[in-house]
Amino acid sequence: MSHSIESYILAVITSDRQAVGGGAPIFYAGSRQEVQQLAFTLEKIIDGVAHELRPDTLIIVKHS
Fold first, then answer.
1. Domain assignment of residue 29, given as a range
2. Which InterPro entries does the annotation name (predicted)?
3. What is the CA angle 59-31-44, rounded to 5?
4. Mind listing the pLDDT tens digit for each residue in 16-43?
5. How many domains are there within the chain?
């Protein structure tokens, strides 16, 4: 039986610098509105899907 990764995180967008860390690129925003705007733009550029983890933190995920 073979295992494969079917989804992976392309980016994290947050307005809370203390809330995130890790290996994916992190984009810091000044407000919740800016988090939404950055996520919308990045979603289009990198062909991913935005998912809200918290009101101030979203991730962009690539679903295979």
1. 7-63
2. YpzH
3. 40
4. 999 898 889 999 999 999 999 999 999 9
5. 1
